[in-house]
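User: Need the bound-state model for zinc ion:
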Amino acid sequence: MTYGLISDIHANIEALTATLAELTSVDAFLCMGDIVGYGPDPIACIDRLQSLPNLTCVAGNHDLAAIGRYSLDWFNDFARAAIEWTGERLTADARSYLEGLDLTAELPDAFLVHGAYPDHMEYIVAPADAMGTFESMPVSPCFIGHTHVAEYYRNRKGARHADSHSALLGCSIALKPDLRYIVNPGSIGQPRDGNPDASFGIYDTKAQRLEIRRASYDIPAVQRKMREARLPQHLIDRLPRGR
Ligand code: ZN
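Assistant: Bound-state model below.
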C-alpha cells in the first residue's frame, strides 16, 4: 500500500492541484487536517478531497473553527479574519463534510492527528514536545500537521527521549522496525519552513519507506485571488516567503 500524505492545504487549490499531480500512483491518501482557512478556495479544496480515492482525513483547528466548533480566541487576528471569511462561504455540503471529520484516525499501519496526541491541537516543534505523543499513540508512524514544517521525529520504544530531523529539502528514509516515528509532511497551502513550495509525503507500507517532497505552484495566481477576496495582506505576503 502506498499513501499520499497531505496536510494543511488551507484552501489553496493551486498548491493542492500541483501536489496531487505528483501523487497519481498512490493507493490511498492520508490528510492531517486544516483543509480550509487562510486561502481563497475552501470549497474547491473540499470538493477535490472528496473526489480522492480512499481518503482518511482528520480535522484541524481551522476546519473546526470555520464551523464554530473551536474558539476563535485561539487564533491571531489574521487567522481569525480568514476563518470568519471562510465560515461565511461554506456551502451546506462543505460544512457537513467538515462536521463529519474526527480528531484522530487509526489504521492498521498509521495513526493520524492534526497536532499531537492526546492533546490534539498542541504543537510538536521539538523532541520534548513529541514524547507525550510517542507514549500515547497506538500505531507508528503517527502522521501530524499543524506546524507547517516538514520534519520527522524518532523514538526507541521505552526511551525517554526522541530525535528530530528536518525534511525542508525533502527526505527519503527507510523506516526501522525498532523505532517509532512521528512524521509531519509539511504544509501544502502555506509552508512556514522557509521553502514556499507545497510540501507532501509518500508512505510505502510494504517497503517501509517514507518520502517527503515539494511541488512548485503558481503562487502569484493564489495571491491575486486572495487580494480579490480581501483576505489579510499579511497572509498574501507570506506565501512566497514560505514563512
Ligand atoms: Zn494549519
